[in-house]
Amino acid sequence: MADDFHKPTLFAGHRFDVFEGAPDPAQRTRAAHETAQALLARVREGADPAVVERLVHFTDEHGLETVAELWSHTRAETLPGALWRVYLTRAFITHDATESSWLFQRGVDELGTIDPVVAGAADPAGPADVLELSDLILRGVFDGDLAIALERAASFCRLAARGSTSVANDLEATEPERAERLTRRALRLSSMADELTAAARLWNDGTLD
Question: How far, in Å, CA of 26 to CA of 30, rounded?
Fold first, then answer.
């Protein structure tokens, strides 16, 4: 990134807006990679807790669209693509913590895998628990092991996807429109789980850029 920050700092909204509507797709992609790499490197360099907390809650103040404009167009198996999917996972949780916790817990109850342990939420998980988990995952991106944070996000998505499918099956006869919405959500969450798992593997291999 062109700016040379002397210490870890929050990218204010105007710094993201610089890249909005870039006419050249290659330039836009390059900007996404550069900002993701610079952000992660600068924050991890100092791991200032106050900066990390501002980044965790960045979209609460500035909106998910601010991050989407910069990173949502990038491929899943890239650093900006992975960061975007973690922020998207948090947005899914915070948008409706009650429903998110319900779907997650249904997945925990039905999916006999290690995912509940990897995700690390309380069992049973209520709204406050999944909200806390969403913050812990994103915080881990900036001051922990990125691969672990990506795996935790993947496990949450995998469990919520299973829960969405289960609830959709229950509602298919009585609430077909809601069932269809949950089925679409399950597909998206399942895809995100696979993408985040792949990104974690690439990070461990040193090839996520």
Answer: 6
